[in-house]
Structures are given as C-alpha cells and as structure tokens.
Design brief:
500 residues, alpha/beta, Glycerol-3-phosphate (1)-acyltransferase, Ferritin, 2 domains, 16 helices, binds fe (ii) ion
Length: 500
C-alpha cells in the first residue's frame, strides 16, 4: 500500500512538474521570440547565454535539481569543441545552464526530428542556433553535415558542443564514441574541453522526465589541444578520451574526488572569518572578469576613429585594467583560491557595439566598480584583500573621469535622433546597473553590513546627477587635462605591490 501511495505521489509530482515545465517553456519561447524580433534576430548570445541559460536553471530548480560546476579556469573565449558523456534528459538542461560562450549545441535528428519540430523547443533551438546531426546509420548524409558544420564554424569562429555517444546511453556504462566528432575538432584545429556530467543514479530520469531532487556535478576537465592530429590518429585519440571518461566514472563511483575542491576556509580560522573570506573571494573573482575584459572592449572601441590623445589614454587605461586583473590573479594564486563563474550580467556586456554604447558601458561599469571597491576596501576585515582592493581603487577615480569625459564628447557629436537613442540606452543601463548593484549588495551584505543597502541608491544618484553634464551641450572642455592630472596622481603612488 505504502509502495502504491509513493508511486502515486511520484506520478502526481511528475505530471505536475511536467505541465509546469511545458508552461514555462512555452512562456519562455514566446518571450524569446519577442526579444528576437526586437533585436532583429541578431543577438544570438543574448538568447543562448542569458535567456536559455536562465531558463534551464529555472527548470532544474523547479525539479529540485542543483547544478555544481567544478572547474579551475573560465571557459575559453576562443573556438572550442565541448564534449561530454550523455546518459540523461537532464544533460541538456545542465549543459545549457553552464552558459558556454558562443557555443552551438548539436541535437540528434532522432524520432524524425521530434524535438526539432516540437514548439516551444523548436523555437528556442532555432533561435540559439542548434544544429541537427544525422545518425551514424546515414553515413553519407552525416559526412555532408560535418562538412557544412565545419564551414559554418570556420566562418563564425564560434564553439560547438557535441555528444560523442550520439544519444542518451542509460546502461550505466559509457557508450562507444563516434570519432567523426573528433575529426571535426582536428580539422578546425580547435581544442577539446571534456565535460563529465555526474548525475546520482537515484535522481536520474534517464530517457524520461521525472528527475528527483538532488545535485548534478559537471566536472570540467583540462583542455586537449588537437593540433597535429591526423585522420589516422583521430580514432586513437577518441579512444584515449573515452578511456579517460571511463576513468573519471570509476573514480567517482569509488568515492574519490575527481577534482581537488578549493575552498577559502583555512584550518583554525573561525567560521565567520572564513565566510567573509569566501564572500570577498567571490567579489574579487567576479571583478577579475570585468578587469580582464576591459582591454578587449578597448580594442573594439579603437576600431572606431579616435584622436591620438584619446587613443593614448585608452591604451593606458587598458594596460591598467590588465594590471588589476593580474593583481587579483596573484592574490588568488598566493591563497590557493580558484576563480568562480563570472557575474550573471557579464555576457550582456558583450552586446554593445557602437562607440557611444561602449563608452556608456565603460562609464557605468567604472562608476559601479568604484563605489563597490570603495565600500569593500573600508569594510573588509581581511588585511590582504583590503590592501589589494585599495590598490585597485587608486586608479578608479581617473577611470570614471576618463570615460565620463569621452562619453560626453561623443554624445555632443551625435545627431539629435542618435542622442535620443542614447538617452534611452542610458536609461536601460541605469536599470541594469541598479539590478546588478542590488544583487551584488545582497551577496556582500555580511561584509558591508547595513551600509551595503545604500550602495545601489548611491550609484543611481551618481548616474542621474551626471546626466545633464553628459547630455547637455556643455562639452566638458579640458577634461582630458584634468584626467591626466588624476592619472599622474594615481601612477605617482608607485609601482603596485601586494605588500601588507
Ligand atoms: Fe580596475
Ligand atoms: Fe577601472
């Protein structure tokens, strides 16, 4: 009887969650389509790395499934071929939830393309650029598909996710690997990043949909370069990689950890201190991504025409942000910490293209970073982190001034219509920064205390107060002189050091 009831309860849960999932998918597909129309179908990364990622996370959460990614490095920004084991329906959600940068997924053309033609999944896979591979039982079609895919990836320079097993293998053992997947990586000369998806057997729905609450672990293994692979050696390499996956599987089932887990907790340190250290480390880790990205954004900015003076200042700025990233990196190395994932808003920052939009983004980010660095430098009780953040903070004043000045100058050159568009964009950025700042203030609350709650308001007030200066016709003449003075003052602080 008990058995029957629990089976009934499980069936009830399955039906309820299945209909809720379908409703969520349908709503998300409609929203995604609307956003795609508004963005003229051109913001592929927004659809896959932001919208589909968060949808997958929401679905996993709804099913009570937690996702933990174990990795020591951020995912590569250059063309990469991701591969993983594939034993469960949950894999698809876990992989999309990782937000792999610029990555197309490959689905199996199974069940006569059932997934492909089933709205809303069809709409989403179309918008996120999913590709559909013919099965190995159709070798000629499959070979042509690989040729087309290779051409496409060469043109776009994007990454791809492939399942070497080709379908869900639910026997509890790894299926054979199709080596043509690795041939594609070798042809492209792109490195392979293996992902091992570990799903506890008691929560795994296999080919079904009734996952039970629990935690999925995705183990990101070290990158494998494919340069020098020949058609003859590809099969061997594919077997070696399969052996590695089998090795990981055995290691995990024997209970040994597959990766050394990193934690900022130090034996003998109080819980409160180690918690604070972990929060500060997460803050610095997300800052690292922003610092590290600055020089590539400057490179994008410099593709637009600009004066020699502006170019000099921007190059100096990019070098300084590179240095900030290095200082954070050194701090992490010294403490044996590993970086976490970037801040959830991070991928959105790659959408800006025009010079004005890039400058607006820099200005909003620098202001936000300055306010948070300031608060963290004064509040953290960790002397090492305090010294580091103070050092970073030293340069932020002139960074803010530089970008505010460049932005004001750029805006004054725009036509009234373009300025109107920029006003709307500035409003959007203010809203975005506000959401981001509120989120970050909540994360940092244990360190910042009640002062943290005021930070988003402070940032919003700064951004609003600057509006008349930015959009007024009063182009801030001589701002570069003031900027240079500030820059000199910050460099006069001497060579950066982490001495404490
Ligand atoms: Fe910085
Ligand atoms: Fe900065």
């Amino acid at each position: 009887m008990i058995h029957r009831m629990s089976r009934n309860a499980r069936l009830g849960r399955k039906l309820l969650l299945a209909s809720a999932t379908l409703a969520l998918l349908t709503a998300a597909a409609v929203i995604m389509l609307a956003v795609a129309i508004l963005t003229l179908f051109r913001a592929g990364r927004l659809y896959s790395e932001v919208m589909a990622k968060w949808l997958s996370r929401a679905i996993l959460t709804m099913w009570g499934v937690r996702l933990e990614a174990h990795r020591t490095e951020p995912f590569p920004k250059t063309q990469t071929v991701y591969v993983s084991n594939h034993s469960s329906t949950l894999d698809m959600f876990a992989l999309v939830a990782l937000g792999l940068p610029r990555t197309r997924f490959v689905g199996a053309e199974d069940l006569d393309g059932f997934l492909r033609w089933m709205a809303p999944l069809g709409i989403m896979s179309w918008l996120t650029g999913t590709l559909w591979a013919p099965p190995p039982s159709k070798p000629a079609e499959r070979a042509r598909w690989f040729q087309r895919t290779e051409r496409l990836l060469r043109q776009t320079g994007g990454s791809i996710y492939l399942s070497p097993e080709g379908e869900r293998v639910t026997t509890g053992r790894l299926g054979p690997f199709n080596s043509d997947n690795f041939q594609l990586a070798a042809n492209l000369g792109a490195p392979i990043v293996p992902l091992y998806i570990e799903i506890p057997r008691d929560i795994d729905p296999g080919r079904g949909f009734d996952a039970l609450p629990g935690t999925i672990h995705v183990h990101v293994k070290p990158t494998i370069p494919t340069r020098g692979w020949t058609p003859d050696s590809v099969r061997r390499h594919s077997e070696t990689l399969r052996d590695r996956f089998v090795g990981i599987q055995e290691q995990l089932s024997s209970g040994r950890p597959a990766v050394a887990s990193s934690s900022s907790a130090v034996p003998g340190m109080s819980d409160e201190t180690s918690r604070e250290r972990a929060i500060v480390a997460a803050f610095l880790s997300s800052s690292w991504y922003a610092e590290e990205e600055a020089s590539s954004v400057v490179a994008r900015l410099l593709r637009h025409p600009c004066s020699a003076e502006e170019r000099d200042l921007l190059v100096a700025y990019a070098q300084e942000e590179d240095l900030h990233a290095d200082l954070i990196e050194a701090h992490f190395r010294e403490r044996g910490l590993t970086k976490g994932p970037p801040f959830w808003m991070h991928p959105l920052l790659r959408l800006a293209r025009s010079r004005a939009a890039l400058l607006l983004q820099f200005y909003s980010l620098e202001l936000t970073a300055g306010v948070f660095y300031g608060a963290m430098a004064s509040k953290t009780r960790d002397p090492g982190a305090k010294a580091l953040i103070r050092r970073l903070l030293l340069d932020e004043a002139w960074h803010i001034r530089l970008h505010r000045g460049l932005l004001a100058r750029e805006l004054s050159r725009l036509s009234p219509r373009e300025r109107l568009r920029m006003r709307a964009l500035a409003w959007l950025y203010r809203r975005g920064m506000d959401a981001g700042a509120r989120f970050q203030a909540r994360q940092l609350a244990p360190v910042l205390g009640s002062d943290g709650r005021a930070l988003p308001r402070k940032i919003a007030a700064h951004l609003r107060a600057d509006l008349p200066g930015l959009f007024g016709r009063t182009n801030s003449r001589g701002f570069l002189d003031k900027t240079r003075t500030l820059q000199r003052r910050s460099s006069a602080a001497g060579p950066p050091s982490l001495d404490r």
